[in-house]
Design brief:
By secondary structure, the chain is mainly α. Helices cover 69% and strands 0% of the residues. The radius of gyration is 21 Å and the shape is globular. One of its GO terms (cellular component) is plasma membrane. Keywords: Membrane, Transmembrane, Transmembrane helix. Its main location: membrane. Belongs to the purine-cytosine permease (2.A.39) family.
Length: 445
């Protein structure tokens, strides 16, 4: 398997499904429409609505609507361009996301990001089931039956992962249309009620909001190739990913901004804005059921990451076991603590500079000569250096709020006299440092 030539692929058939083990060639069944639908659905999420608070800012210091809209669009375009590149690499190689990293780091070293991605995907998978249960409770107007909603969401999630390509086909034919109708309905109903603008004229915090949106888009980078390895062409993989996710995330976050402002900035009341309109419960139910594609993506990509470690294990056994694990954890966890959010954020910051190393080496370095993606791919220890430098840059600029961990970076900032400025984007600067360090390493080889 090489970076320059696509991996051998199966001819598409009506019933083609994803391979059961890692060394089986993937069927190329996903066209532009299928991939566009997949990424458009992933770009709309209940978490996205509530996360609109990261764009608007704290109550009393809200961004203006113009600044919030601009930050959402700019951050999404930048982040989704990176996502599209990861999707392109997956389509060219025909390999899952973590298996692609065998070419970058070597097989054994690729286990490091694989384990991190497993932890990240399981964490977000659990969170998605809790969010689905919360949304279902809002629709039913009840605080009960939490366990039942979690269980139903977990079962549906696991079923989707057993037939992933079939699930994507269902998204294309039916779910995308239903979600589009629901989004149009809520947009019309909420906007007609008026859009408050408490931060009129305020652009302070614009770049930090943009950085947050970039990070949201990039969060799918470690998952992208798991799906676009089935793309019919590399071009369709890039453009479907870029256009589908960009359109959906911008729409989702801006609708969330409107709902949040109408809820007086209280993110815990944001779903009340949706159920408060005529027949809002029915359209919110569509979005709640559709949210299982988020948990599906996390569970399926966990299995793909595990297969990089255990390539001969049947993915159906993996997804079934992981789906059960995520469901049990969601049943045991009432709510996420701040430290757990911080832990997931810490892992997320690992993948921003790693993608920079991946892209720089693939397009400008050894990837042009062809990567070895087989089990005997030799370790490339030197490639850990630019990744580490990029990660350190990210944490130096925006330390993750974990006791002792953040204290180390804040103390380092103090020692060198560094004060974060509004333009110091942790995502972009860590990406730049990692990419430049990768090119420097390449020149010395």
């Amino acid at each position: 398997m090489t970076a320059v030539s696509p991996a051998p692929v199966q001819e598409p058939t009506a019933r083609a499904e994803a391979p059961l083990v890692l060394d089986t060639a993937p069927p190329r069944t996903l066209d532009f429409r299928a991939l566009f639908s997949l990424w458009a659905n992933l770009g709309v999420s209940l978490i996205g609505f509530t996360s609109a608070a990261t764009v608007i800012g704290a109550k009393g210091s809200e961004l203006s609507l113009a600044a919030a809209i601009t930050a959402t669009v700019v951050g999404t375009v930048i982040g989704t361009a990176m996502l599209g590149v990861a999707a392109l690499i997956g389509a060219r190689t025909g390999a899952p996301a973590m298996t692609v990293l065998r070419g970058l780091f070597g097989t054994k070293l690729s286990y490091i990001p694989s384990v991190l991605n497993i932890a990240q995907c399981i964490g977000w998978g659990v969170y998605e089931l809790l969010v689905i249960a919360m949304g279902a409770q809002e629709v039913t107007g009840s605080q009960g039956w939490h366990w039942l909603f979690v269980l139903l969401a977990g079962v549906l999630t696991t079923v989707l992962t057993i037939w992933p390509l079939g699930s994507i086909a269902v998204l294309r034919k039916y779910v995308t249309i239903a979600v589009g109708v629901a989004m149009v309905y809520f947009t019309v109903q909420l906007v007609r009620q008026g859009v408050p603008n408490p931060g009129a004229g305020n652009w302070t915090g614009f770049l930090s909001a943009t950085d947050a949106i970039i990070a949201i888009s990039i969060s799918f980078v470690p998952l992208a190739a798991d799906y676009t390895r089935h793309a019919r062409t590399a071009g369709s993989a890039f453009w479907a990913t870029f256009s589908g996710y960009t359109l959906a995330q911008v729409w989702c976050y801006l609708l969330g901004v409107v709902a949040l402002l109408q809820s007086d900035g209280d993110a815990t009341r944001i779903f009340s804005s949706f159920t408060g309109v005529a027949a809002g419960w029915a359209f919110l139910l569509v979005l709640v059921i559709r949210e299982t594609d988020q948990s599906f993506a996390n569970v399926y990509s966990t299995a793909m990451s595990v297969q990089n470690l255990l390539p001969k294990v049947d993915r159906r056994l993996l997804t079934g076991g992981i789906g059960a694990l995520v469901t049990v954890l969601a049943l045991l966890i009432d709510q996420f603590t701040d430290s757990y959010y911080a832990f997931l954020g810490l892992i997320g910051s690992v993948f921003v500079p790693m993608f920079a190393v991946l892209a720089a080496d693939y397009f400008l370095g050894s990837g042009r000569r062809g990567w070895n993606l087989n089990e005997d791919a030799p370790a490339r220890w030197l490639m850990l250096l630019p990744w580490a430098l990029g990660f350190a840059t990210y944490q130096f600029i925006a330390p993750t709020a974990i006791d002792h961990w953040s204290g180390f970076w804040l103390d380092l900032q103090s020692r060198v006299g560094f004060v974060a400025q509004p333009w110091t984007s942790a995502s972009l600067l860590s990406f730049l440092v990692a990419a430049l360090a990768t090119l420097a390493v390449q020149r010395r080889k």
